[in-house]
Amino acid sequence: MSQALKSHRKLYTKLRNMNAKYLIPLVLLGMWNCKQQNEKSVPDPISIDIEKPPKKSLEMERVAQYLGISPSDSVDFETQFHCWTIDENKNLDSVNISEAINLFKKITKTGKSNVYPIFGTDINNEVMIIMSNKGFGGNIRGTFLIDKNTLEIKKVEFDHVAESDGYGAAITLSDFENQFVGTKVNFATNTFGLKQNGKIAIPGSKIVDGISGATITSTLTVEMINDNLKKYEVFFQ
Description:
Blueprint: H1 3-41, H2 58-67, E1 81-87, E2 92-95, H3 97-110, E3 115-121, E4 126-134, E5 139-147, E6 153-160, H4 174-177, E7 192-196, E8 199-202, E9 206-209, H5 215-231, H6 233-236
Parallel strand pairs: 7-9
Antiparallel strand pairs: 1-2, 1-3, 3-4, 4-5, 5-6, 7-8
């Protein structure tokens, strides 16, 4: 091979290497520009805020369950309630669900109130009423479900603050509570009488058996029921 031909090949190789040296950065720059254009061409995602239904309080869910309303996130079941309040002087007022629930919370927490809520519903003729009284160790409370048309007691639940286990606390047992279910409210006299230790301690239309060893709690519970049912007469009639 001649010396001149060798010189030409060296020059060609040098030029080719130089082109590659500058070509690679240009290619990379072009790829980056393409990427930027593609990114700009893709629209930003659209953010849609979906309003969540308000969280239901435990008290509201408890009232709904007691009345037979099924809480659902897809249905505003609050609109199914009809609520009232009644005070110690038998004054009756219509209120919204929030006011009634706040009163229910207060009574559940303290067992004390001068005003009591009444909860009704569109789905049936039953209403839920609340009552409380001073017990042997603290406040006792009663929750009743009553048919507005027949005045029949459909459901009863008792609660207490500090009654003695094995004695006054037994008002929360179904054996005691069920004695009051199925009875028709009598506004003319005591709806319930009490039989304690084999004797009639309180006269009434329906005699229930008191709790053994808890004479005071049994008496105060039956007195609470009779006095409060008479108070609610203005609502039912």
